[in-house]
Specification:
With 142 residues, the protein is α+β, with helices and mostly antiparallel strands. α2 crosses α3. The mean pLDDT is 91.
Length: 142
């Protein structure tokens, strides 16, 4: 398993950040996949997403101070992947994204090593786009 973790501090209240985070916004902020379908139940949201040549199913669980998602099923690039987006703070908010993954299979060491920078870039886009969206929303509300 490889692990990638990034954090950012936002000049936004915790409630505002939590309000903007949802399974669909998380996928949209990462800007890697397009959402094909959404299936919501009481405790979980399942998104089927597609990329250039990939399709995968992501299962989201909302916790008190975080969102957690995993790739589920046999379809997708990872043998195993789980990501958690943790939110903490008050007037200023710290958002931390931690992803653990493995591609598995033949040459998994090489695939995991190469995939680390790709996964890091995806999570960096998620934080950057979320920050930009919150700043834009804050400017429009003034």
């Amino acid at each position: 398993m490889k692990t990638v973790e990034l954090s950012t501090e936002l000049d936004a209240p915790l409630e505002t950040v939590e309000r903007e985070l949802s399974p669909t916004s998380i996928v949209e902020y990462a800007n890697t996949y397009a959402i094909q379908s959404v299936d919501e139940s009481d405790s979980k949201t399942v998104l089927t997403v597609i990329g250039d040549t990939l399709q995968l199913v992501l299962e989201f669980t909302e916790l008190d101070d975080s969102h957690r998602y995993t790739q589920v099923g046999e379809i997708g690039p990872f043998e195993e992947m789980r990501t958690e987006i943790m939110v903490e703070g008050d007037d200023r908010t710290r958002v931390t994204v931690r992803s653990e993954f493995t591609f598995g299979g033949t040459f998994s060491f090489i695939k995991n090593w190469l995939g680390t920078s790709i996964r890091w870039s995806e999570l960096e886009r998620l934080l950057t786009n979320m920050t930009d969206d919150l700043e834009r929303s804050d400017a429009e509300s003034r």
